[in-house]
Amino acid sequence: MGIISKAKNSKIQYILLVALVIGLVFGVLSLTYASETLLHDEAPGTIITFSGKQWTILDQMPNGETYLFLRLKDGDRVFDPDRTNMYDPTDTNNIAYYLNNDFYNSLSQNELINEHSWDRSEYGDIICKIGLISEAEYRKYFQYYDGNILRPGYYMWWTRETDNTNVRTIHQEGNMYRLAANGSAGVHPTLYLKPNILIDQNKAVLGELIEPRPNTPEDFSVSSNTSYEVVLSWQANTEEELAGYRIYRDDIMIAELASISYADNNVLPGMTYKYAISAYNTEDKESDWSIPITVTTPPAKPTSLNGEVTERTVYLTWEASGNPSYIIERSTNETDFEQVAEVTDKYFTETHALWDTTYYYRIAQKGQDGAVSAYAEMQVTTETVPAPTGLTVTKDGNEISLSWEAAKSISTYIIERSTDGQLWEGLATVNTTKYTDLVTEDVGYYYRVRSDGGNQISEPSNIVGVSVPANPPDVQASVSDKTVTLTWNAQNVSGYKIYVNNDLREELPGDAINYSFDGESGITYKVMVEAFNEYGAAGSTVTVRIGSFTAPGGIQMVGDVASNAGAVFGSIGGLLALALALRGSGPLIEAARRYIGM
């Protein structure tokens, strides 16, 4: 029994010992954890230890970084013996080169330092890990410097310069002075520590706090195809504790969502935006941001597009904001567009469009970065080819001269000719408003002119006609007592005009084939029968003499017959005169014979 009891006691003691050890371990761990805090929770002005050196916190940045300033100078050094007077980490003689190489490598915890973009004014920013405070930063953070920095013996120290004109130092009284860059002054480096840095109870940096965080979303893309929207998309994360994603525009969070795409409709045309994305879990632990992507929204599409047409010239005007360029595209089928111009003015004139053609135009703004807006669209139809007007004709022998008034925007004309006013043939193509035609006698001609618009021929001008002469009527004349009778062959004309001794005696309809009038004895008449239509006229002329007859008998009758025979013979020929004479008595026959020389 005693042995068993002793064994049990030993076992109990062992269990108690193990429990005590475990308790001590957890106690130490708990105490250790409780003594670790985030560096980012410390207030500016706090002094901490980093890589064995004391630093003053100048600022806690919104992205979790901590801006530090080395309290005690890292010796006295020349800013730049070459006197370029700019903070330049690429220049081996420059103080910036020393700080980002020798000094940086001397820091045992340098993996906790973030790169930073340091301002150099108009010379552009520089990216490096170790810097100096600028003149503006010195004034901003002045309250955090203590007497150990400015006390006598630390006569002056360098600031980071942004130009190459001079170098400033901080005097022991806190004033700023210029100093030649090849002079010597104290060096107080500055740097940015990463987010999530832990420090112990003595304010000494321990390292990064490692927490379970989501991965940064992959395949992040940003695009803008319209003036008022930016579209973001990415690949889904696979963490079980994932809660969603955060969208940042210009470093400001604008949305939290669970989907893998986002449309930002709170943007303006022609503006540049920077986007980033992160993932966060149910513990509100957030991933690193994605690499930022910059996008520029297209300009706003033009408004108040207006089109006017004069002949075949198209005038387009529109309204738009800003001062980009404008792309003009055109189509004749509303589908296949081609660019016809890129202009900087808010108007466009197309002077050589086709006649009688419908055009579809669309116009877009083009921004400085090449982004193109949506299109403003409209259609116009050009006018038909204008016909020549005022065609006139003159005749000089067998030369026919034509002239007409020019049609607007037309330089080429087609002359057409016809002999019947129905069937037309092309006679000539000219670049003037005049034309001379050489014609054949005894033929009637009709003329008209068309405008040649290139892609279209106009309607014809007014028609003009001339006779040279054009098929004049075949006129026959006879005399009975004092009545003169005219007959002619029927023609397809508008009418006939009868001229007696050059005076218009009568105008007859187109179906007339004869005309009679009474004359006076002993008078000779020149009679013309003129056929006419709307294009011109052609006539035939005969001469008729009416004799002085008395009672039929003796010599007087012979004389009368002879006279009449002569008159008639002169107009219608010797056979008719002979026939009249043969109808008389012997004296008549003799008189007729004497007259005609039989």
Describe the structure.
The chain is 16% helix and 40% strand. With 598 residues, it is of the alpha+beta class. It folds into six domains: 1-35; 41-208, no CATH class; 221-296, Immunoglobulin-like; 303-381, Sandwich (Immunoglobulin-like); 389-466, Immunoglobulin-like; 547-598, no CATH class. The strands form 13 sheets. Strands 2-3-4-13-6 form a five-stranded antiparallel sheet, with no helix packed on it.
Q: Report strand %.
A: 35-45%
Total strands: the figure is 43
What percent of residues adopt helix (DSSP H or I)?
10-25%
Q: Uncertain runs with pLDDT below 50, 5 residues or more?
A: 1-7, 25-33, 150-155, 549-589, 591-598
> What is the strand arrangement across the widest sheet?
2-3-4-13-6
Residue-averaged pLDDT: 82
Structural class: alpha+beta
Report, as a whole number of angstroms, the end-to-end distance.
202 Å
Number of domains: 6
The whole-angstrom Rg is 58 Å
Biggest sheet, in brief?
Answer: 5 strands, antiparallel
| Contiguous helical run count | 7
